[in-house]
Design a protein that fits this description.
The protein has about 230 residues and is an alpha+beta fold. The chain is built from 6 helices and 10 strands; from the N terminus they run H-H-E-E-E-E-E-E-H-E-E-E-H-E-H-H.
C-alpha cells in the first residue's frame, strides 16, 4: 500500500515548514495590530499626536514572537498555585498575548494584590510595556504580571512584543509631558535598557530598582530644557 503521507521524516519536515508559515502569518497580523493600537493610543494622549509622532517615533519599530509552554509539577494538586513565570514587566512598547483556555495570567494591582486575567477563546490581551511608559512620561503604565499554574495541565501562550529599534533615543515629547509637568525619565537608548534588563532578569523582578523606573527615573530634565540627541 502506498504511503501518501510520505515517510516520517518527510512528514516532520512538512509539518515544520507549514508551522513556520503559520507563525510568520500570525506575527505579521500582530505587527499590523500593534500599529493600529499605538495609533489609537497617540490619539488618546492628545489631539494631533498621532499625525505628528506615529511615523517619526514608531515607524521603525519591530516585533518578535515568543511561545511560552508551561508544564506543571506532578504535585500541583492541593497547591494554591505554582509560578510558571515570575513577576515582571514587559520591555516592549506594546505586548499582545494570546493564552489558551487554561489561563494563568495575573496582573499586579497598585495595592500589591493579584488579579486573574481569565483565558477566553479567541481573545487577545494587550499590555503597555516599559518603553511606552517611558515615552509617555508615565501617563501609560507598564503593569507587573506573572503566569501561575493552578491546574495539572500544560499551559500555552503566544506573546508578541513590539519594540523600538535598538538605536532609538527614548524621550517623551513636550506635548506628551504637558506644560505643568516635569520630565520623569531621562532620555536613553533602547538597546541600553534592553541590556540592563537582560543582565538582571533572573529572579530579580521583585525589586523595584530593576524596572524602567529604576533604570531611567530621576535626574531627568525639565520639559523646557534643551536635550542633546
Amino acid at each position: 500500500m502506498e504511503n501518501k503521507g510520505g515517510s516520517r521524516s518527510e512528514r516532520r519536515k512538512r509539518a515544520k515548514r507549514d508551522g513556520g508559515k503559520v507563525l510568520q502569518e500570525y506575527g505579521s497580523k500582530m505587527m499590523d495590530l500593534c500599529k493600529k493600537i499605538v495609533y489609537i493610543l497617540l490619539k488618546c494622549l492628545g489631539d494631533g499626536l498621532e499625525t505628528k509622532y506615529y511615523e517619526s517615533e514608531f515607524g521603525q519599530c519591530h516585533g518578535y514572537l515568543r511561545i511560552n509552554h508551561y508544564t506543571p509539577p506532578n504535585d500541583i494538586d492541593g497547591v494554591e498555585g505554582v509560578e510558571g513565570l515570575g513577576m515582571h514587566t514587559d520591555m516592549s512598547c506594546i505586548t499582545i498575548l494570546y493564552q489558551d483556555e487554561t489561563g494563568g495570567l495575573q496582573a499586579r494591582t497598585q495595592e500589591g494584590g493579584w488579579v486573574e486575567i481569565e483565558g477566553s477563546e479567541g481573545a487577545l490581551i494587550v499590555n503597555v510595556g516599559d518603553l511606552m511608559q517611558a515615552w509617555t512620561n508615565g501617563r501609560m503604565r507598564s503593569s507587573a504580571h506573572r503566569a501561575v499554574l493552578r491546574k495539572p495541565t500544560t499551559c500555552l501562550s503566544f506573546a508578541f512584543f513590539w519594540c523600538f529599534e535598538d538605536e532609538k533615543l527614548v524621550l517623551a515629547p513636550d506635548e506628551v509631558i504637558g506644560e505643568e509637568e516635569r520630565r520623569i525619565y531621562r532620555p536613553f537608548l533602547c538597546k541600553d535598557y534592553m541590556k540592563f534588563r537582560h543582565n538582571i532578569e533572573k529572579g530579580r523582578f521583585e525589586k523595584v530598582s530593576y524596572t524602567i523606573d529604576g533604570f531611567a527615573e530621576g535626574d531627568a530634565l525639565d520639559s523646557n530644557e534643551k536635550i542633546e540627541k
